[in-house]
Amino acid sequence: MADSDLEAIRQARRQQLQNEGGQGSNAGGGNAGGGGGGEQEEQRRQQEAEARASILSQILEPDASDRLNRIRMVKESRATDVENRLIMLARSGQLRQRVNESQLKDILSALSEQQEKTGGDGGGAKIVVNRKTGWDDDDDLDDLLKED
């Protein structure tokens, strides 16, 4: 990852922290006046989403971004976990280049192994089906047909 990319990520994070700090001091006065707090909260969420999208667009190649979006359609929590890990790696300077699709697959497998070890969110629980035999055995029908 180039120095300009890292600097852009740092600048986006500084902007995000400044926005949160400025809104935090105004939130007390806004809530006393009525329903302004919900609007500020929504605006803060929107800014956080934009900052996340900006950071992810800088650290993900297009094919990796597409895969992450497909994962989000299936399981939102898994995509959020991957995004959090990618942003953490970018902020700590551990990413040297943009993440491609195979690297994203490696991160996904590492996350899934970690969730299996810790118990995860229950989404990976196995379903075991025990079928009873004997009461509806198709072999009996075959035996009857052979006797004729």
Commentary on this structure:
The protein is an all-alpha fold. 76% of the residues lie in helices and 0% in strands. It has 6 helices and no strands. The termini are far apart.
Structural topology:
Blueprint: H1 3-33, H2 36-59, H3 62-74, H4 76-91, H5 101-118, H6 138-147
Helix pairs in contact: 1-2, 2-4, 3-4, 3-5, 4-5
Counting helices, strands and paired strands, the structural category is mainly alpha
Give the overall shape, derived from the CA principal axes: elongated
What's the count of strands? 0
Oligomer: single chain
* Average pLDDT taken over every residue: 79
| Largest beta-sheet details | none
Q: Using the CA coordinates, give the radius of gyration.
A: 25 Å
- Residue fraction in strands: under 5%
N-to-C span: 77 Å
pLDDT under 50 segments (min length 5)? Answer: 25-33
The DSSP helix count reads 6
The helix fraction, in percent, is: over 70%
Topology order in helix (H) and strand (E) letters = HHHHHH
